[in-house]
Amino acid sequence: MSKFIIKGGQKLNGEITVNGAKNAALKIIPAALLSEETIIIKNLPDIEDIGKSFDLLRDLGAEIKHEGHQAEICTKNVNKIELSQKLADKFRTSVMFVGPLLARFGEVKFPHPGGCVIGAGSRPIDLFLEGFTAFGATIEENSGKFYHVKAQNLKAATYFFSTISVTVTESLMMTACLIPGTSILQNCAMEPEIEALADYLNSQGAKISGAGTPVITIEGVKKLSAGEFTIIPDRIETGSFAIMAAATKSEIKINRCEPNHILSLLNIFDKIGVNYEKGKDYLIIKKTDKIKPYDIKTHEYPGFPTDLQSPYTILMTQAEGTSLINENIYDRRLLWTDMLSQMGANIIMCDPHRIVVSGPTKLYGKTLISPDIRAGIALVIAALIASGQTEIGNIYQIDRGYEKLDERLKKLGADIRREE
Ligand code: EPU
What we know:
By secondary structure, this protein is α+β, with helices and mostly antiparallel strands. It has helices spanning about 20-30, 50-60, 85-90, 100-105, 125-135, 165-175, 190-205, 235-245, 265-270, 310-315, 335-340, 375-385, 395-400, 405-410; strands at about 5, 15, 40, 65, 70-75, 105-110, 140, 145-150, 160, 180-185, 205-210, 215-220, 225-230, 250-255, 275-280, 280-285, 295, 320-325, 345-350, 355-360, 365-370, 390-395, 415-420. It has two domains: about 5-20 and about 235-420, UDP-n-acetylglucosamine1-carboxyvinyl-transferase, Chain; about 20-230, Enolpyruvate transferase domain (UDP-n-acetylglucosamine1-carboxyvinyl-transferase, Chain), CATH 3.65.10.10.
């Protein structure tokens, strides 16, 4: 098991470049199944979950040339409708292959997707199944472990989301692209990755309007053509680095980002006294000595993202006063704060969705295990401010979302090394 060894207390400075968004790339790859022509994807992050997506796509019969941050995909010869248990079991977004396969072949067999530990149970897929049923598919389910989704003829439908979901919105949007007639999705998630996926599909001939708003309308087309797409900058990486700079009281420039995608965080920076300069595609976080406390409630976009809740919690351990962190999206996304308490943070858990953080507290280096991607980056930030040495194990869970984090942070002056 690889680990990071971090010696805290160094100020960071310099520039860091944001990579392509993991949560955009993970949808663009399965979307390649909607066209038999060649797809070129640029600015791909070089992270674990992308490799797993390619393995799954290759297993279905796709030809993929992947080098660095670019890939060329052709799914013309795909004729398999079953996702490999061994491969799909490894990551949650294997479920994103189901909608495109259903749209193309009318049938898919797949195991319950694997993934990290942040949601209820093993993270439900009930909304995906409900949506496919609305399009006329029937579902055979084997004890919630294996599914067979099938349709003679998929039918256009109007579907209302009872719970707002990013991946289900994207999934149904992809499926509807090839269903004749007009489908309308209501109460959709509005994340920038959804709009990016729609732009990409439209550039291949799809007819999607309203992506990025609560109502998305899709006119089905017969086929999608070849496509070329550059992945948008990762807004969660951007926000993580911005919080890292504020928490370590450092000044850094974050390049190749889209500051307008993290306005909820910048709005809070204004309130807690973190100074920054916002450019068109960069952010400079200025050195801030005094941070005020501020309560957050995680919310669907454009609200405060659940994926930045854990880094923000670290920032609040350094704020002068008490703040309430209210995690509304996932059931188990505050459990990691127990580790933060072991580092010296003053945190009271009110219930699984709410913690009270009192600051400022001095943090101390510890030996810890990263439970998931976002708690993992938060522990890295905590380690950078802590006195002494912190060891973070299971950094596979950090590599899943942040490409070569150690190398990039070293360039900012962090004392971090990877040990295999
Ligand atoms: N939900 C259901 N049933 C479903 C699907 C979702 O009950 O069939 C629930 C979830 O358990 C959760 C809520 O709906 O309580 C909302 O979750 P959502 O479906 O929106 O999450 P997601 O689409 O699975 C994406 C991102 C997450 C990010 C959330 C919220 C991807 C691949 N993942 O997940 O990213 O936290 O939206 O913004 O796009 C991460 O990158 O670390 C990450 C977890």
